[in-house]
Amino acid sequence: MSKIKIAVIVGSTRIGRFADHPAKWIADIARKRPEFEVEVLDLLDYPMPFFGEARASEAESETAERWKKKLREFDGFIFTVAEYNHGPTAVLKNAIDLGDFIQKPVGFVGYGGVGGARAVEQLRLVFVEMSAASVKTGVHISFPEYLSVVKEGKSLGDYAHLNEAVKNMLDQLSWWGNALKAARAVVTAAA
Q: Which structural domain, as residue segments, surrounds residue 168?
């Protein structure tokens, strides 16, 4: 079967964001696996209006359509998820609302309070509604690990438990990616 095309989505646009660290780290690991073709999508490159906003400019609306069209190229997704106030960033939730993830697997690399777990759990519920398949294992970067990267120059790869979580998540993304890609092909052929 052909490679599974995965998008790593940088889920924060804040100044001084940490999101670049986990996005680069997870993309580099996924690229080493022969079954994946990986591309990083940065929400900074897709300034979109809020879903359903009447005041959206023509350029913002065109960007939202470009975003949705770009997402259709992929067989699965990995989101970097910052947790602010016990939830995901507004820009990430908006990008998800404007996107197209039907019958595709999604994985998460969370960071922030309790490793971004609360934000990730909220997004799992959203993706069920969007007919996507959330893989079981997430990667959760705790605050001490976050600080060691930002202040001490450590790498996320220095932590064995994070490497183990990444392996498990990518294994699941591979399985679901292949299964759903094959199922989509059967449905398309029958149409």
A: 4-190
- CA neighbor of 74 nearest in space, from 177, 175, 168: 177
Q: Model confidence over 120-167: pLDDT tens digits?
A: 999 999 999 999 999 999 999 999 999 999 999 999 999 999 999 999
Question: What is the tally of structural domains in the chain?
Answer: 1
Distance CA 172, CA 97 (A): 24
* pLDDT classification of 1: cutoffs 50, 70, 90: low
* Residue 111: exposure state from Cβ atoms within 10 A (0-12, 13-18, ≥19): buried
Q: pLDDT-based confidence at 55, cuts 50/70/90?
A: confident
**Residue carrying the six token digits 């924060």:** 12
Are 110 and 116 contacting, i.e. CB atoms less than 8 angstroms apart? yes
Return the H-helix or E-strand segment holding 107.
strand 105-112
| CA 41 – CA 99 distance, rounded (Å) | 13
Q: If you ran DSSP here, which 8-state letter would residue 19 be given?
A: T
Q: Determine the average pLDDT of the residues in 52-75.
A: 86
**Which distant-in-sequence residues (6+ apart) come within 8 Å of 79 by Cβ?**
8, 9, 11, 92, 106, 107, 108, 109, 123
User: Which residues make beta-bridge pairs with 64?
Assistant: none
